Amino acid sequence: MATETISACTGSNLLQPISEITNLPLDQVNFVVCQLCALLTAVWFRLYLHPSKTSPFVRHVVATLLGIYFALFCFGWYALHFLLQSGITYGIMILTGVEHMHKYCLVVALGYLSFCQITRVYVFDYGMYSADFTGPMMVITQKITSVAFEIHDGMARKEEQLNQSQKLLAIRRMPSLLEYFSYNCNFMGILAGPTCSYNDYIGFIEGTPCRHRDQETKRKTEVIRKLSTCFFSLLVFLSVCKVFPVERNIDDDFIATTPFYAQVVYLYLSMLTTRPKYYFVWTLADAINNAAGFGFNGYDSEGLPRWDLISNLRIMNIEFATSFKVFLDNWNIQTAHWLKRVCYERCPYNPTAATFLLSAMWHGAYPGYYLTFLTGIVITLAARAVRHNVRPYFLGSPNHKFVYDVITWAATQIAICYTVVPFVLLSVGPSLKFYRSWYFSIHIGCILLAIALPVKPRHLRMKEQQSALQPSQETTDSNSNQKQKAT
Hints:
It is a single chain. The chain has 23 helices and no strands. By secondary structure, the chain is mainly alpha-helical. The N and C termini lie far apart (89 Å). Helix 5 packs across helix 9, helix 7 packs across helix 17 and helix 13 crosses helix 20. Helices cover 71% and strands 0% of the residues.
């Protein structure tokens, strides 16, 4: 029975020979092959179903049907959860109205996702860290909730109640059923995302000039560059990851015989070699969208077109991050945007803790996820305290700033590795064993820093910044008035 269930999860058995030759799980082989097919399909979609040649209706239908086909190939009939989750939440939006739809959709979409994650983890294949149907559901959940909140902003709230970002993202009319399914299940993003704005997606499908550009030369260069990054990331992951297994961090002999400084170095290397897997998946997903003509994001300071509208990571900024915040801002970018827009900006109490909790629930049912995000709250508070209280003393000269950057880079990398070990180990026992081997030192240190270096609440800091700007603004206005009088 278990074998049949796992087989159903992997979808088609057509690529079983490739799985046996490469010694990779069939679900991973199906996923990679479907993404490569999606890349080729994206080129065809842009050339033959360009907005100048084809109606939005045809583009929506083709994008949706292809997405459903790829999902069925990868995950078998489990892919029907994508349609069911989307269908239920669309019904909620129609029946409940714009006043409360965002709350109901958040609860139902997240609850449906959590039910599927708990079932997969505790009924079928606990600990099998591989591709599964709940991965795409995580992205669809983001899209469902984003649309619900943006419709609420556009149709139930007054313009003056919205911040600048909410004004741009607000949806002013109810999407049709086809538009909704196309947004959630199109072939470019159904397997690995990333999440994008509904307005941006509709602008791409319809060819709206202000949201879509077809800069052919730069687009080709970007796609080639991202595919090169994918190839290099996959090569590094396949060749180096097994050399530094994360599980060795909790091996009794390793802990007993290895000096602590060597354990720190190994921790960094073992976690460093797990990241190329995400670099490969997310960069390939970005390249697929770019190949279809989606992802244009205006022009840079030199007037060159940018294709990073839905990019999910900035690798160099991640590897050389000098603060916990900088790392998080450049890792899984679209998820960070979703958490900010759905939770952080709207939560009246403890938005940081609420955002980490929502992120943990969204990621899944493994206890290690919750340990990671609880640790992340403590480290975030400590990092914020250090930045506000210590950093100003190092800004006096370039040399001092360089020393500060080197120290904070090392501290950030170790803190990130320490934080995400439970995310990889998944279970409570191994995770606590790792933290005990480090004597919970970073937890304790961060708590002490957060207590010893208090940071003013965000709303007080904002008031101080506004009051500091007012005198300079008054001076500017006074000078302007004097010039007008003199004239």
